[in-house]
Amino acid sequence: MVSFTTIAILGAATLAAALPTATTPQDASPALGRRTGATHRVEAGFAGTLRFEPENIVAEIGDLVEVHFAPANHSFAQSSFAKPCVPINDNAIFSGFQPATKGVQAEAPNAFTIEVTDKLPKWFYCAQTKGNHCQMGMGMVINQNFDGGATLDQYKKMAAWTGVSISPPIVGNGGTLAPPSMPFNGKA
Ligand SMILES: *[C@@H]1O[C@H](CO)[C@@H](O)[C@H](O)[C@H]1NC(C)=O
Ligand SMILES: [Cu+2]
């Protein structure tokens, strides 16, 4: 006769085998949760403009945001809503500058990928001071609150009146620099 315990153990083993592996080695980054498998591609300096495209992303926890860098020399840096073009704090997300040569490269060799770990609005800018990219409109948001006044439009308006941009202190912080998982759809 098969005991209850045996059935329970067999049941648990079967269930465990059927579940997707929660922490495969490539997903084992300690602060991060389960990946959704969705990747939002963003291009910094889309088609030669001083914009991110798309610039207003709605993402789920566990989604990835992969920022590509078109020519000439852009970056992806985290600010607060209230103070565009300035690092949110010393731990601000920052890709560093990723130059690409127009007419030679469609985009910089590396993209910068971050994982969305909560649903709070996150504000980003390009810290390039030559040409005042942030002040000229290189701002974007992940998970804007669409019910409030903290809109991307407002962020960009404040950015236009902000002085010289400041780069976050830690290059590569909060994400991964690696060759893009696939090319960006737009023209570079
Ligand atoms: C890219 O911009 C940064 C910040 O302005 C600068 O320090 C760096 O030299 C630039 N790189 C190239 C290749 O122009
Ligand atoms: Cu830029």
Automatic annotation (TrEMBL):
Gene3D superfamilies: Cupredoxins - blue copper proteins (2.60.40.420)
Keywords of this entry: Signal
SUPFAM superfamilies: Cupredoxins
Origin superkingdom: Eukaryota
This protein's name: Extracellular serine-rich protein
Region forming the signal peptide: 1-18
